[in-house]
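During the no-cost extension, the postdoctoral fellow (Dr. R.K.) reprocessed legacy sequence entries with the updated structure-token encoder. One reprocessed record is reproduced below for audit purposes.
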Amino acid sequence: MSAQVGKSMRLKRVIDPAGVSVICALDHGMTSPTFLEPLSDISARTAEAVAGGANVIMMSKGMIRIAEPAFSPTTSLALLLSASANPEQGQPQVIQIAEVEEAARLGADAVVLFTALAGETEAGMIRTLAGVGRECAVLGIPFIAEAEFPTTYASVSDLRDQYGFEYLRRNVRLCGELGADIIKTNWPGDEESFGKLVEAANGLPVVLAGGSRLEDGELLQRMEHAMAAGAIGCSVGRNIFMHKSPEAITRALSRVIRERWKAMKALDALHKELGAGAVR
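Re-encoded structure tokens follow.
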């Protein structure tokens, strides 16, 4: 009972009182095949995302030691438990590098595991996924599973052509079956297909992954459609921290998610903010 209470308490912070979640992923130093320059100043990127309305920051155990002062009292930490081995390859291997217990010691409200299926590493991936789900249930830590294409460093359209919609749908369902409390998944191409991914989660909260770099309008349009199809929010990394104004684009996403603004209205407000010099 106590573990379930703990999980419920933490989920109240990860999914805010409005029932939505605006997650900024600053964990790409663990997964990217190349170093991403904006992450040189992890504290600044964290502060910008928090100022823009992100209520959850995804981060590694090493970087939270540096970025902790930039968290507000209500900002949740979602600790990344995995790194990508051989990330430049088409299907990198996911390696677990932290334990759920470590996340609890660091004050995390959730843990995150990237889930790459198919190929010879699938059995090990499923074993890791099930193990993390089991530990989260014992320790009362919400589990965010990233049910995505095997690599996130190619365009979603290319990955969709390579792996197909059913790859995503199976991944979403498998993550739910093995204990995920929140499922993050890619944009499959249209609102109807995203709705099918939400259905595959069978009532579990689903957030839209930002994926590779997009034009602002396209990002906000996808977010509007995802919310209409049943998403509770987003988990966006590069489209926030590589933006010329991470705070402003986070604010635009937050408006679409929390206030249900239309994408074009949020885009217009973003352009006005950027025009006023709100760029770094």
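Strands lie at 21-25, 56-59, 76-80, 82-85, 93-96, 110-115, 143-147, 182-185, 206-209, 233-236. The longest strand covers residues 110-115. The remaining legacy entries will be reprocessed before the final report is submitted.
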